Amino acid sequence: MYQIINIKHKNPLLNQLIITNTALKFKAIIYPNLGASLQKLSSNEIDLIDGISNSEKGLNDYKSTYKSSILFPFPNRIHNGIYEFKGKKHKLNINETSLNNSLHGCIYNTHFTLKNDNVSNDKASVTLHYSNKGTTLGFPFSYNFEINYIFTRHKMSLNFAVLNSGNEAFPFGIGWHPYFKTNNITESVLDFNATHQYLFNEQMIPSSKTLLKHRTPLKIGATFLDDCFITNKPATNFKTLEYDFDLEFSSKEKESYLQVYTPPHRKSIAIEPMTCAPNSFNNKDGLLTLQPNEKFDWEIELSYQSKY
Question: What is the pLDDT of residues 140-182, one digit of tens each?
Fold first, then answer.
């Protein structure tokens, strides 16, 4: 039987929704006040997600790594935080000061409210809600954003729903920024279907497209990755010595986007599905537009199997 408990912390940013299933040795932890981010996913006592600790140190970790953050209204970077939409220029907050970019959208540090939760013998579901009345610097548009997490045996689904609650259209994209833990990244294998990727300038902004630089399936070995791949299929597979997983994300377009990053400590890997490219507000690659009262749904499915 799944169970859900709500844990309050003296620092509300560290409040937790904890989902467990003793029989499956399963545990998931969501932080509603850190953009409804998933900071733990463990099955059969094998940790898949490399999340933050429940401490002030963990908060600093989140601020620098954006672990498991939900990326909206854009994933990755907007060059100098500047873009134009329908003849109007906008200036976003610069939160990547070293490169003078706006990074990872505007909701990664927002407070979500619990809309509903549900548990049974074979499933747990949690829905969290956030509303913005157009008060964000550089993104003066009203919207409602909902995330529905569904946990079943060997599978997790993330369902995103964005509603334009304002009177004018807005540009947007969505992404998810999880880090996956592995004790031996050298032996881990990443697979996806792509023929092209981006080249980046000194500000980590796409400058051009090039043929894929890596042969897939890619055994990570000593390879350093901080790349955005233009995938022909919205899916990827990752194999470690501890577990395998398949990650699929919905896409109505021919191309989709996958950002992959290997941190210097090499104890995890960020595998980030995205609906659009970095700097999409300017280069328009994969950029979506939502009309007033229009709703957009996006789904990610993570199917996993431990090897023990």
Answer: 999 999 999 999 999 999 999 999 999 999 999 999 999 999 9
Cα distance between residue 165 and residue 155, in whole Å: 32
Tens digit of each residue's pLDDT (9 = 90 or more) over 178-223: 999 999 999 999 999 999 999 999 999 999 999 999 999 999 999 9
CA-CA distance, 107 to 109, in Å (whole number)? 5
Query: 226: number of CA atoms within 13 Å, CB side?
Result: 11
Domains of the chain with bracketed CATH: 2-306 (2.70.98.10)
Q: Is the pLDDT of residue 77 over 90?
A: yes
Whether omega before 73 lies within 30 degrees of 0, making that bond cis, reads yes
pLDDT for 308 equals: 67
Q: Measured between alpha carbons, how far is residue 274 from residues 145, 148, 193, 285 in Å?
A: 16, 17, 15, 11
Q: If we measure between CA atoms, which residue out of 272, 234, 237 comes closest to residue 108? A: 272
pLDDT tens digit sequence for 263-274: 999 999 999 999
